[in-house]
Design brief:
Layout (H helix, E strand, L loop, with lengths): L10 H11 L1 H33 L4 H49 L4 H4 L1 H44 L4 H30 L1 H15 L4 H7 L2 H53 L5 H43 L20 E10 L6 E11 L2 E7 L5 H8 L7 E6 L2 E2 L5 H7 E4 L10 H6 L9 H11 L3 H6 L20 H13 L5 E5 L7 H11 L8 E5 L11 E6 L2 E6 L1 H7 L2 H11 L3
Parallel strand pairs: 3-8, 3-9, 6-7, 7-8
Antiparallel strand pairs: 1-2, 1-4, 4-5, 9-10
Length: about 600
């Protein structure tokens, strides 16, 4: 609804979303602003009639009738305020609900390139995080314009009727420079927040370091709170100094215009007083019109100034939104794994070359290798040699590579992402720690296929030897993990890692790929994990592990050694040890630390 446009957004199209998402509330608010625009003119006439009836010594009936009208209008103003405030909040809630859901869905379907590039990633965050407020603000600008126009127009009719029509025109003309100054100030303020967005993120991260419970052990050990606190203070002071300067410069011109409008208002009141002494208007009308002018002038500065600022802010948001809509989206990223008839036989890289966007460095430099069903493989090498990048290409996160990747002899690009998801299961190096129950943590691996979930979960728990953990937890599988809840239980890093592997296992994918799967697991348990990993069975057609811990390599069928984006060695453990090249050197150095 919000992010599915083919044409670009304009101010009017953005405001129209209020009618599209919650038409009943949008219509009520339009009606409210029409009434609010008319009420000041009605109140001016009512107050004028009341004062004149009192001044002329009219009968008490006329006096109380005029008073009753004034009171009724004032009651209407106050009573309606609460109701319309409720409607306004309901509209905001509806916008928030729709924009957050659609924003998360749209961001999740972005091409991976936009997640990794800082500038584009920040734009995604700004747009999806601020959509609801800007959609409502765009409509609020239109409502305020309608209300001000009706208010000024209805008052102008009264002024015209009593031959002082020029008063309203002068007020409106004087409001134009106020609007222009406010608009320009709003542009500068929006640009400030856009330019300093990454600055504010750094401040927030430093706040996270100083306050978050996950950091408390290292904060206590290294006592870096003062150091980080000083850095946070410098960032904060610099940020707020720029922010204050931006806002002060914006306010300076507005204050000058405000003073000018007060002087102008004094001249107008003096002119109307002269009209009263000439007998052109009554004392009641004079007093009522003076009150209306003061109110109109106040309204212009209270409503017009933020409105103009909002207009420039929304203009900047629309530019970011249209840029966001130009990003490449692929709905297949949101597709659920499908039960594919494809049976994994082989995966082959043929002369694959890959560079990350905006970089000329070849992360993968003409690499070729083959993985076959029923066998286990290990990829080893130094950090930055391209091992984790291969996973991203296999999963289809990047398409801009040279060479070919073949699945069962067919270009992998010809398979849908849903088919790939049904074949490949991955445990990432930076796996997630979901602060939900242990049962839910594991079952997330198979939310689209619940058939036999109890059996699969039990098998995964046994393989990862998690029953001891379950017995320790107060509610067993249903225990909340993490620190978000008072009853939640925090667990060790190795236990989190075993849960992440269990989440992969319960999915029962044909190919299991694990990136540093045992970095937090003790050696004895690591040996058990690698034993079953090295012997693919059942529905698992092949196993691939990426690891710096070379003990896994003894039992796998084939090892690929990577260095600077190239495969420099390949073979079995014994073959590579006999060659006494790079793998031999890595293994013996690592082995030496344990002997």
């Amino acid at each position: 609804m919000i992010y599915d446009r083919e044409d670009k957004y304009t101010f009017g199209k953005l405001a129209a979303l209020n009618f599209k998402i919650a038409p009943q509330y949008a219509i009520v608010l339009l009606f409210q602003n029409i009434i609010e625009g008319l009420l000041p003119a009605w109140l001016t006439l009512a107050i004028s009639s009341f004062i004149d009836s009192f001044q002329s010594g009219s009968e008490s009936g006329a006096f109380f009738k005029a008073l009753s009208i004034v009171v009724c209008i004032m009651i209407l103003q106050n009573a309606a305020s609460s109701f319309f405030s409720f409607v306004r909040q309901r509209l905001k809630t509806a916008l928030q609900r729709i924009s957050e859901y659609e924003g998360m869905e749209r961001a999740a379907s972005l091409e991976y390139i936009y997640i990794e590039e800082r500038e584009k990633s920040e734009n995604v965050s700004r747009v999806t995080g601020g959509a609801a407020n800007h959609i409502f603000s765009s409509y609020q600008v239109i409502l305020t314009t309608v209300s001000l126009a009706i208010r000024a127009g209805s008052l102008a009719v009264i002024f015209f009727q009593y031959h002082v029509w020029w008063v309203g025109i002068i007020v409106l003309l004087f409001s134009m420079p106020v609007f222009v100054l406010s608009y320009r100030s709003g542009e500068k303020v929006y640009q400030f927040y856009k330019d300093n967005y990454s600055h504010s993120l750094q401040m927030n991260h430093q706040t996270y370091i100083l306050k978050n419970r996950e950091m408390v052990n290292e904060r206590t050990l290294f006592e870096y709170s003062h150091e980080i606190g000083e850095k946070w203070g410098r960032f904060r002071n610099e940020y707020f100094r720029k922010q204050l300067s931006t806002h002060l410069n914006a306010e300076k011109a507005l204050k000058i215009s405000s003073i000018g409008s007060c002087v102008m208002l004094g001249v107008l009141i003096a002119s109307m007083a002269a009209a009263y002494f000439q007998g052109a208007i009554t004392i009641g009308l004079l007093m009522a019109m003076v009150g209306s002018l003061v109110d109109l002038n106040s309204c212009i500065h209270q409503a017009l100034v933020p409105m103009a600022s909002n207009v420039s802010d929304i203009k900047g948001f629309i530019l970011d939104l249209n840029r966001f809509l130009e990003y490449s989206f692929d709905p297949e990223y949101l597709s659920a794994p499908v039960k594919s008839e494809v049976i994994f036989e082989s995966l082959e890289f043929e002369d694959v070359v890959f560079c990350y966007p905006n970089s000329d460095r070849k992360v993968l430099d003409h690499i070729s290798f083959r993985i076959e069903g029923g066998r286990s493989y290990a990829f080893v090498g130094k950090n930055g040699s391209g091992k984790s990048t291969m996973i991203k290409l296999i999963l289809g996160l990047y398409h801009n590579y040279g060479g070919r990747i073949l699945l069962n002899g067919k270009d992998i690009k010809e398979y849908s992402k849903a088919e790939r998801k049904s074949i490949f299961g991955v445990m990432f190096q930076d796996y997630a720690k979901y602060q939900i129950s242990l049962k839910e943590n594991i079952d997330l691996g198979t939310v689209h296929d619940r058939e036999g979930i109890s059996r699969r979960r039990e098998e995964a728990l046994k393989k990862m030897k998690l029953h001891d953990l379950i017995e320790r937890l107060p509610k067993g599988l249903d225990t909340q993990l993490g620190r978000l809840d008072a009853s939640a239980q925090d667990i060790s890093g190795g236990e989190w890692q075993r849960i992440a592997i269990a989440r992969l296992l319960v999915s029962e994918k044909q190919v299991h790929i694990m990136d540093e799967p045992t970095s937090s697991i003790d050696p004895l348990l690591e040996e058990c994990i690698f034993d079953w990993f090295s012997n693919p069975a059942g529905k698992t057609a092949a196993s691939v592990v990426i690891s710096h811990r070379l003990g896994v390599t003894k039992n796998v069928d084939k090892i690929y050694v990577m260095d600077q984006g190239k495969i420099v060695e390949q073979g079995t453990y014994q073959e590579l040890m006999d060659n006494e090249n790079m793998f031999y050197e890595m293994y013996t150095k690592q082995q030496g630390r344990f002997v």
